[in-house]
């Protein structure tokens, strides 16, 4: 390991290239997570609802029929998780060959179409793979071959998966946000990114900051302005970066969210009354703060 770190330190371009290739491969798996995790969660919710009905509403269960309740809410196979079944064309069901699963290149080789039925394959898949590779390559350039790079890459993988799911489902899964929040606190036990004291305060302050805005907005308008997943995501960044970065993250995420929302309405691709997921903007702002947060804060304070 020491020899590998020494080699990567001598050839930073090689380290950045390897980081890109590895992360792009992980990006292929993140596409699976973004697509399948919401389905798995909905099935779990269905099972919990069925268990509740069987215990407290037996007459309703008898009327509806237990077989109908146990039937999955979607058309996917009964055994369905992040590993099983293997990747296949959603139209013809042909199993995707390993060389067609190569990050970015596989999609280009296929011309964006299924090798069997020629059905179009969404460009979202290579975009996620390339974006994952580029963001982790940026981390490799900034941190070098260090533990900060390794852990920041793990965080980036989680942020990309959460952002994709939030864009699709308006949902930030606890199975992603909470483990990363706790990981941030554990990493800062020895001060990897900030002190443990600042991380603890940051986790609480991050959650409570948006929680307070949520309740203020709800009491004022009677509407819900954001979801609880946004609170947890902000707490996550507080745990990783400390409370000092929270104002910057809130400011950046609000600015980006406002600009994107206005552009979407100008282009008439989004109606004003339709909700916009806030998680991707928090994730982007937090990732920027992870790399350039201290520089931005120092520049701002120096310009006063």
Q: What can you see in these coordinates?
A:
The chain is 70% helix and 0% strand. The protein has 304 residues and is mainly alpha-helical. The chain folds into 2 domains: 108 residues, no CATH class; 158 residues, no CATH class. The longest helix has 45 residues. 31% of the residues are buried.
Layout: helices, strands, pairs:
Layout: H1 2-10, H2 12-56, H3 58-64, H4 66-70, H5 105-109, H6 124-143, H7 147-169, H8 174-187, H9 196-221, H10 228-241, H11 246-266, H12 279-303
Helix pairs in contact: 2-6, 2-7, 6-7, 7-8, 7-12, 8-9, 8-10, 9-10, 10-12, 11-12
Subcellular location: Cell inner membrane; Cell membrane
Catalytic activity: Typically cleaves a -Gly-|-Phe- bond to release an N-terminal, basic peptide of 5-8 residues from type IV prepilin, and then N-methylates the new N-terminal amino group, the methyl donor being S-adenosyl-L-methionine
Domain Prepilin type IV endopeptidase peptidase: 154-262
Which key phrases capture this entry?
304 residues; 0% strand; 2 domains; 12 helices; mainly alpha
């Amino acid at each position: 390991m020491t020899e590998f770190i020494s080699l990567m330190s001598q050839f930073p371009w090689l380290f950045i290239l390897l980081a890109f290739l590895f992360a792009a491969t992980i990006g292929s798996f993140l596409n699976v997570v973004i697509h399948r995790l919401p389905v798995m969660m909905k099935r779990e919710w269905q099972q919990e609802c069925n268990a509740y009905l069987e215990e407290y509403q037996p007459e309703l269960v008898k009327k509806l029929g237990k077989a109908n309740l146990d039937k999955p809410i979607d058309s996917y196979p009964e055994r369905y998780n992040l590993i099983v079944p293997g990747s296949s064309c959603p139209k013809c069901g042909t199993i995707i060959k390993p060389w067609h699963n190569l990050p970015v290149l596989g999609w280009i080789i296929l011309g964006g179409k299924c090798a069997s039925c020629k059905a179009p394959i969404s460009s979202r898949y290579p975009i996620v793979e390339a974006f994952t590779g580029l963001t982790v390559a940026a981390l490799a350039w900034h941190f070098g071959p260090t533990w900060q790079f390794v852990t920041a890459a793990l965080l980036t993988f989680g942020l990309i998966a959460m952002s994709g799911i939030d864009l699709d489902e308006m949902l930030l899964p606890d199975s992603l946000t909470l483990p990363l929040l706790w990981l941030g606190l554990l990493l800062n036990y020895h001060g990897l990114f900030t002190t443990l004291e600042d991380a603890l305060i940051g986790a609480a302050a991050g959650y409570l900051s948006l929680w307070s805005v949520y309740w203020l907005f709800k009491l004022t308008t009677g509407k819900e302005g954001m979801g609880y997943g946004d609170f947890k995501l902000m707490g996550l960044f507080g745990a990783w970066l400390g409370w000092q970065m929270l104002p910057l993250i809130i400011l950046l995420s609000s600015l980006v969210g406002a600009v994107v929302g206005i552009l979407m309405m100008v282009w008439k691709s989004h109606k004003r009354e339709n909700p916009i997921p806030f998680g991707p903007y928090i994730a982007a702002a937090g990732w920027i703060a992870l790399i350039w947060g201290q520089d931005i804060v120092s520049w701002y304070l120096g310009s006063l």
